[in-house]
Amino acid sequence: MIRMLLSGAMCAVFLLVSACGDSDPGTSSPEIESQEQTKEVLDTVSHDVASLIVAQFNQSKSDGVSQACSGGGTVSSDIGIGYGSVVFDGCDLGTLKISGTITVSVTVSGGSFRITISGQLNFSGALSGSLSFQDMILSTDGTNTCYSSEVTVGANQYSIDGTDASCPKVCSPKTSTKMNLKVTNNTAGAINLWWVNFDCGLNSYSPNGIKVGGSQQISSFEGHLWRVTDLAGNVLREFGMDEASQTETIQ
Asked: Domain 178-250 is classified in which CATH homologous superfamily?
């Protein structure tokens, strides 16, 4: 897999925000008095956090990249070949302060990248809770900045949509070079294996799931994309075929 230096554009970002509470007493954030204001804050923060993640990839010519946040704190990364982590250490974005570590993996098809993100970020300030990202898609030329979010704050839900028709899609390419894939499940529960088809949809290749400690072997083709989820549908990894005999161990 290839180290990806990504452009500042994103699409299809899904996040979950929970445990709405009082402001962090150490943060001088404005009070949020309405659902409309809450939605505006979450829209802005989701965009800013994702932009910081993208910026880490843009600067990831060497590991250990760090950048300062606007109100204090830092964002840093340790990015290898196709995989890595991004750490938010008290990153103050003005309204909310973000902390936590996420892990990322990257696949590419044509002129688009997909970043699969695992883990969650916690935030405090005018709102408190957590963000979980899934399925961030970026164009390589920097022309797209688009995202959609289904957001939950306490008992309230918000839909934030910044997508448009120009948002890139990542599909398996039509290729002819045959390759072999082996997926091993070292997680604590059963997993599902999906092929990302030519239309960017998902085809199941493990209807009964891959049991803990089990493996599945499949014939594939160069450049084809595969996704691994838990039984609840949470993305654990997405990867592309770039080796004649490729082994993916899911942990």
From this structure: von Hippel-Lindau disease tumour suppressor,  beta domain (2.60.40.780)
